[in-house]
Design a protein that fits this description.
This protein has 7 helices and 15 strands. It has 281 residues and is α/β, with parallel strands linked by helices. It folds into 2 domains: 187 residues, FAD/NAD(P)-binding domain; 80 residues, Alpha-Beta Plaits (2-Layer Sandwich). The strands form 3 sheets. Strands 1, 2, 6, 7, 8, 9 and 15 form a 7-stranded mixed beta sheet that branches. Strands 10, 11, 12, 13 and 14 form a 5-stranded antiparallel beta sheet that branches. β1, α1 and β2 form a beta-alpha-beta unit. The model has no long low-confidence stretch (mean pLDDT 92).
């Protein structure tokens, strides 16, 4: 059973979310990690944003982020493609590894939740989430939004978040003619002859993103079926990149924007490293 009062509440179960919540727990703070889905990984596992840059020379040694990267690089089961510093990760391996870190460090977590609202008060914040048990009110002295889409921060200030780009990412079974992927934003032939493919979504309206994503999936699946192939893995949601407008830093509500304003979809581990390195606790 989780408590109701915490020093820190974090969202989401991204690489950075797991790293920072673990770091805080090791330093003796009470920490709760929230996540919409029942598994960790952020956009990497939720949106199949599997193509990631992992460069040990950019990572602070003896950090939790570097520990995760070294574990992934040294395990052939963790990736399904590698080209120098770029990897296409095995999402199931990453889910397991991040969950293992949370459990071993005793980090409280609450998954399968939707954040309804965040309210500021004299003691910090009241976070209302909806889960299987109904509405749950949680209190935190400080909040860290470790999601790369700023989805937690948008509950406090919805008008500050602006959509920049959107992608739908899939894995397909092997194909006879890869020209069917010619209009993709990225396409990578994996070690086992499957394909990881990313399509950019040409829509700026957030409410139409998932509709357009489904149209893209339907179109490519039709072409795949003509080759006796199919889409093997589809994302739980589209991979969306946002920026924050008129953002003002505050010591009690921290986001990636406190440390870096521009980043690419391949930078999930770099973002984790930057936040871990610069977060003053």
């Amino acid at each position: 059973m989780i408590n109701q009062n915490y020093d820190y509440i974090l969202y989401s179960g991204s690489v950075a979310g797991v790293v920072i919540s673990t770091n805080l727990k090791r330093k003796g703070y009470s920490v709760l990690l929230l996540n919409r889905y029942g598994f960790c990984g952020g956009t990497i596992t939720e949106s199949l944003n599997l193509h990631q840059r992992m460069t040990c020379d950019l990572i602070k040694k003896d950090s939790i982020t570097s520990f995760i990267i070294e574990k992934l690089i040294n395990s052939k089961e963790s990736y399904i493609f590698m080209d120098y510093n770029y990897f296409v990760l095995n999402p199931e391996f990453l889910k397991y590894e991040l969950q293992r870190i949370l459990v071993e460090n005793g980090v409280d977590s609450l998954f399968h939740i939707i954040t309804k609202k965040i309210e500021k008060n004299e003691n910090g914040f009241v976070v209302t989430v909806y889960g299987r048990e109904g509405d749950i009110k949680l209190n935190a002295k400080k909040i860290i939004d470790a999601s790369s889409d700023f989805s937690f921060y948008s509950c406090l200030s919805p008008s500050d978040r602006e959509l920049v780009r959107g992608f739908v990412n899939i894995i397909t079974t092997p194909v006879k003619d890869s020209s069917i992927f010619d209009n993709a934003y990225k396409k990578i032939l994996l070690n086992d002859k499957r394909w990881w493919v990313s399509y950019e979504i040409e829509v700026n309206n957030l409410f139409e993103i998932e509709i357009q994503s489904q149209c893209i999936l339907d179109e490519i699946n039709k072409k795949l079926l003509e080759q006796n192939s199919r889409i093997q893995l589809v994302p739980a949601q589209s991979n969306l990149i946002f920026k924050l407008k008129d953002y003002k830093k505050t010591p009690d509500f921290i986001t990636f924007f406190d440390f870096v304003e521009n980043f690419d979809s391949t930078d999930e581990f770099i973002l984790s490293s930057i936040m871990e390195k610069n977060l003053t606790i």
